[in-house]
Design a protein that fits this description.
The structure holds 2 protein chains of 2 kinds. Chain A is globular, with a radius of gyration of 17 Å. Chain A is built from 8 helices and 12 strands. The N and C termini of chain A lie far apart (about 40 Å). Chain A has 2 domains: about 5-115, Response regulator (Rossmann fold); about 130-230, Winged helix-like DNA-binding domain superfamily/Winged helix DNA-binding domain (Arc Repressor Mutant, subunit A, Orthogonal Bundle). Chain A has helices at about 10-25, 35-45, 60-70, 85-95, 105-130, 160-170, 180-185, 195-210, and strands at about 5-10, 30, 50-55, 75-80, 100, 135, 140, 145-150, 155, 175, 220, 225-230. By secondary structure, chain A is an alpha/beta fold. In chain A, strands 2-1-3-4-5 form a 5-stranded parallel sheet, with helices on both faces. In chain A, strands 6-7-8-9 form a 4-stranded antiparallel sheet, covered by helices on one side. Chain A has a 3-stranded antiparallel sheet with strand order 10-12-11. Chain B has 9 helices and 12 strands. The chains are: A alpha/beta, B alpha+beta. The interface between A and B is medium-sized, with 33 and 36 residues.
Chain lengths: ~230, ~450
């Protein structure tokens, strides 16, 4: 099965080169030059992963992320020419799973895409090796089905959020550093960006916790990282 | 530069106030003292003269009675306190008190010539007023001495009081000067505080428009200056960010296009392959150069932020060195007392990667990366990262200049052409990263030859 990617990028050369590089990597690539046509293409033929530029002629990449997140858990990688903290964090808050800063080495982008797609495809089987159904009070995680419920209502988690939750929940009480989570959940080496973890923890808390400001399950361990409290 | 020793504005204001107080009160005191002395002395003299004259007259009258004993006359006349008199009859003195001749010769001479006389004098008993009146033509005379010691004591007391008042006025002047100079200094202090706020990066700092119309121009021009500075810095930062965006996009397509060509290298002719190799090398160099320039411009625009995270320092440095241009360099972290410290790992990575790369290009390759931590301010360790190389070392007069931008050493003759070239910005970035970390970088001689780069960083204890 050929995996399909959607690139939403306004620069014609970058879009063309991205398509050729990704096709060389064996993906089928769909593309759009602006947010509107990108969202239309997504609706017509949902891809396995979306690459979106932050600066688009009609809307911002943040808007695209938020629009996609309304009814999709597709992995989203932001491709940005900005390196400021604000843009990166805002993009992650808008629902992106990861980001790549221009100019990137094409092989690195390919590696990031592979990491996200591999996780998406294999996450349920991975988790099922440790436990199939985890219950913590009102929270129920069925790792093999890729479903988490709270009070019997299904939580809309992105694939990365789900993966992060399962990773935590299979080892309750164990403290994970940001580096360990980056490595296990995102497939990064030691230079991964800790803000990815922090932003995903925040997002996960708003979905899982009764009061995200006073988290009951996903606890911060000051100076060390995070842990899951059953 | 001419540099003169000068007192501070506040000290000078205080001194001026104190000096005015001193001069004014001194003048007033001296004037008061002189007037008081003149008036007191005159009063005392007039009173003494009139009493003496009265006694002299009654002595004259009594002595006219025939057969009167001058001793009785003396007894009849009661001298006041501090007064003593002598009646001389035919050269024989009859004194009111103990025999005590204080009458100056001048007075006696005038009286001897038949004239009344008086004289202010001073002898071992103190100041006095001597008066003499001839009582008859046949050698009877009346002499009186009024002691002025008490008057002098009073004047001395007055003098003391005035001196005290002058001192008090001087001190009060100094205090007043201090207080009023504080009022004058307040706007200056506010301006100084605002200026250091701006210098530390809070560009929107302004000072309150002063209520005092004399000081309003200071506040206004200061705030105008701050506003134009802020506009300029923000414009530069925006420019850097725009340039960054404009350069990043073409570089991205260039890198992607190069990779597409490279994956088809085998399909090309030899000439095309040679051209492709140059393209790959140069676009890689171009990309590194742009990234370094963007990094430098973020420092220049004050937009560089530090993201401290707690890291196992030895593990991190091991990974950094393993990914560097010379992965085999030993990392020596045995001297570390705190293994886990809060540092910006991306910046630490840039520091070590650049130093190792620098050693690779110009120093015969790194031979050791050493780590140690020394005590710092509360909650902070001073982390030392030491990179030793086996090159010829760096002459003392170049140990500062190598950290300047685009200062490049001569590459080792042994290796030319192969591998990536330096951007000429690596070491200045090392210095900037270190500075942002509250630290610095310097060069020493490595014991046994070669250069030793020592980076000192503030690392937060978790």
């Amino acid at each position: 099965m050929t995996l399909r990617l959607l690139t939403i990028e306004d620069d014609d050369d970058v879009r063309l080169m991205l398509r050729m590089v990704l096709e060389d990597e064996g993906y089928k690539v769909d593309e759009a030059p602006d947010a509107e046509s990108g969202l239309a293409r997504f609706a017509m033929n949902p891809p396995d992963l979306v690459l979106v530029d932050l600066k688009l002629p009609d809307k911002s990449g943040f808007d695209v992320c938020r629009a996609l997140r309304q009814h999709s858990d597709v992995p989203i990688i932001i491709v940005s020419a900005q390196e400021s903290s604000f843009d990166i964090v805002a993009g992650l808050e808008a629902g992106a799973d990861d980001y790549v800063t221009k100019p990137f080495v094409p092989k690195e982008l390919a590696a990031r895409i592979r990491a996200h797609l591999r996780r998406t495809m294999t996450a349920p089987h991975d988790a099922s090796t440790s436990a199939t159904k985890l219950v913590f009070g009102a929270l129920e995680i069925r790792a093999d089905e890729g479903v988490a419920t709270k009070n019997g209502i299904e939580l809309h988690l992105t694939k990365t959020e789900f993966r992060l939750l399962v990773h935590f929940a299979t080892n309750p009480g164990r403290v994970y550093s940001r580096e360990q989570l980056l490595e296990h959940v995102w497939g990064y080496d030691y230079l991964g960006d800790g803000r990815l973890v922090d932003a995903h923890i925040r997002r996960l808390r708003t979905k899982v916790e009764d009061d995200p400001a006073e988290p009951r399950h996903i606890a911060t361990v000051r100076g060390l990282g995070y842990k899951f409290v059953p | 530069m001419r540099r003169r020793w000068r007192l501070g504005l506040r000290t000078r204001t205080t001194a001026a106030f104190a000096l005015s107080g001193l001069l004014l009160s001194l003048a007033l005191s001296v004037l008061t003292y002189q007037l008081a002395r003149q008036s007191f002395t005159r009063q005392r003299r007039e009173a003494a003269v009139s009493r003496a004259l009265q006694r002299a007259r009654s002595a004259q009258a009594s002595l006219q009675v025939l057969g009167v004993d001058p001793v009785d006359v003396v007894d009849q006349l009661k001298p006041g306190a501090n007064e003593s008199f002598v009646i001389e009859v035919d050269g024989t003195p009859f004194a009111s008190g103990p025999e005590d001749d204080r009458v100056p010769k001048g007075v006696r001479r005038l009286v001897g010539q038949g004239q009344a006389a008086r004289q202010l004098f001073r002898d071992k008993k103190g100041p006095g007023l001597a008066m003499g009146f001839p009582l008859s033509r046949d050698g009877k005379a009346y002499y009186e001495v009024a002691s002025l010691a008490e008057l002098e004591r009073s004047l001395r007391d007055l003098g003391r009081v005035l001196a005290l008042a002058a001192t008090a006025t001087t001190v009060a002047g100094a205090v007043l000067g201090r207080i009023s100079s504080r009022g004058v200094m307040r706007p200056l202090r506010q301006a100084a505080a605002a200026a250091s706020e701006i210098a530390s990066g809070r560009l929107d700092t302004r000072i309150d428009a002063a209520r005092d119309p004399d000081l309003a121009p200071l506040a206004t021009s200061f705030n105008d200056m701050a506003a134009s500075l802020q506009r300029r810095i923000e414009r530069e930062a925006r420019f850097a960010s725009d340039v960054s965006h404009e350069l990043r996009t073409p570089l991205t397509s260039l890198a992607a296009a190069t990779q597409i060509l490279q994956s088809r290298r085998e399909e090309m002719s030899e000439r095309s392959q040679t051209a492709l190799d140059v393209l790959v090398n140069q676009s890689g160099h171009f990309q590194r150069l742009v990234l370094d320039l963007l990094e430098i411009s973020r420092f220049d625009a004050g937009a560089a932020e530090l993201h401290r995270e707690n890291q196992d320092i030895v593990e991190l440095v091991d990974q950094i060195v393993a990914a560097s241009s010379t992965p085999g360099v030993p990392v020596d972290g045995h001297a570390l007392t705190h293994r886990v410290l809060g540092v910006d790992k991306r910046r630490l990575e840039r520091i070590i990667t650049n130093l190792v790369q620098n050693a690779h290009l110009y120093g015969g390759g790194a031979v050791r990366v050493g780590l140690e931590d020394l005590p710092g301010p509360s909650g902070v360790r001073r982390l030392h990262v030491v990179v030793d190389d086996s090159g010829p070392g760096i002459p003392i007069d170049e140990r500062q200049t190598v950290f300047e931008r685009f200062t490049r050493g001569t590459a080792n003759s042994g290796r030319s052409g192969a591998g990536p070239k330096g951007t000429g910005l690596g070491l200045s970035l090392v210095a900037e990263h270190a500075r942002l970390h509250g630290g610095s970088v310097h060069i020493e001689d490595r014991p046994g030859g070669g250069a030793r780069f020592v980076v000192e960083l503030e690392a937060v204890i978790p």
